[in-house]
Amino acid sequence: MRTNTLGKTGLSVTEIGLGAWQLGDTDETTAHRLLDMSFDAGVNFIDTAAGYGHSEDYIGTWDAAKKRRSTIATKASAPEGCTPADVLASIDRSLARMRIETIDLLQLHSPGIATASRDDIFGALIDAREAGKIRYACISEDAPTAQACLEAQPYEVLQTDYSMITLYPEHSLFTYTEAHGIGVIAREVFGRFIYDREPWYYWEEPMKARSDQMQMLAWFARHVGYSRAELTLRFVLANPAVHVSLVGTNKPDHLAENLAIAAKGALSQDIMDDFRAWVAAHPAD
Question: DSSP letters of the chain?
Fold first, then answer.
């Protein structure tokens, strides 16, 4: 499994991370199997959140039984109106559930600019770091808001949507993260949300229209030797601005498929060139 340096944190992380959202909706035996599969494949990065059902509990029992320590990223809920005490209490609960003394990456979970910019909220993360409860103060936020959050406070790692269909971060966000040494975790790397639901944000509308018009699928059809999953995952792996790409599932066979795809590495330059030419001819975002 190839590794990247996660921005200025200096952490060596595998380019594939296990997204543990769906672990929280399965049973403990299946969750432990998925964690074992990832670890055995060389994955050293797990991303979860306080709000992901039993996910943190399962990670805690797995790590306690197997002693297979990985880089752990979790998230604290930070809705508008939250207090520093709320954030610190969430951190303490996550530590207890995962049975660990320190969280490697603590991300504010979709806080929005009003909360992410607050000195007292960011200060709570610094207090937690000084107390040895977390190592790095981070944020999980959608691309249109993420850059403003990073400009407001010195978050060290960003998690955001990015895929062949969700190209919004390429506008300026990745230029900013690379210039400032900010680690980047990509989520929704398969672009599933464009196909599976109606848009939530203004910037999704043109991308949804492009996929609904079958234009994206027409591009996929030009590369019939690849599955859509392979094209989309290997596309994200080709971007040096992304340090970790999350794959998540509660089905072992799906995880095995995704790990096998990741082992092939980035898409070839000719396919990347074809995609970029297609995007230029079909502007959407």
Answer: --EEE-GGG--EEESEEEE-TGGGGS-HHHHHHHHHHHHHTT--EEE--TTSTTHHHHHHHHHHHH----EEEEEEE--TT--HHHHHHHHHHHHHHHT-S-EEEEEEES-HHHHHT-HHHHHHHHHHHHTTSEEEEEEE--HHHHHHHHHHS--SEEEEE-SSS--GGGTTHHHHHHHTT-EEEEE-TT-HHHHHS--SSGGGHHHHHHHHTTHHHHHHHTTTTS-HHHHHHHHHHT-TT-SEEEE--S-HHHHHHHHHHHTT-SPPHHHHHHHHHHHHHS---
Hey, where are the domains in the chain? 3-281
Task: State if pTM tops 0.85.
Answer: yes
pLDDT of residue 60: 96
Residue 143: pLDDT over 90: no
Superfamily of domain 3-281: NADP-dependent oxidoreductase domain (3.20.20.100)
